[in-house]
Amino acid sequence: MCIRDSLVTLLLNNPLGITEIARHMEVAPGEVADDIEHLMKSLKHSEYRLVVTPAECRKCGFAFHKDKFHRPGKCPQCHGNWISEPMFEVREKS
User: Fold this and answer.
1) Which DSSP state fits 47?
2) What is the pTM of this model?
3) Quick one: which of 86, 80, 76 has its CA closest to 59?
4) Count of CB atoms situated within 10 Å of the CB of 3
């Protein structure tokens, strides 16, 4: 089974970050980011949608853009580096 095919099954109602996805799929996190980008485009024509919970600074609460797939190194607001990883989940369209 292709990584992209199994991504939908893995992420269906199960939010995960890129690191966790890479661990489940036994691939490098960089490969997962590319596959998620492709998945985002291909789900537009299916009964599913990709829900992205953006990375967030745990110190000040600053939320990063949803198009950032990797955990940023530093918060632009408080310059802290305690940042949560963005989470990805596949849900059925309502």
Assistant:
1) S
2) 0.85
3) 80
4) 18
Provide the mean pLDDT of the chain. Answer: 89
Element (H, E) at 25: helix 18-25
Residue 2 has which token pair? 């292709």
Q: Which helix (H) or strand (E) holds 91?
A: strand 87-92
Backbone angles phi, psi at 92, to 5 degrees: -75, 145
Nearest Cα to Cα of residue 15 among 42, 36, 29, 31: 36
Q: What type of residue sits at position 14?
A: N
pLDDT (0 to 100) of residue 1: 46
Confidence band of 29 (pLDDT split at 50, 70, 90): confident
Contacts of 80-83 with C-beta under 8 Å, sequence gap 24+, read: 82/57, 82/58, 83/55, 83/56, 83/57, 83/58
- Rounded average pLDDT over 47-69: 92
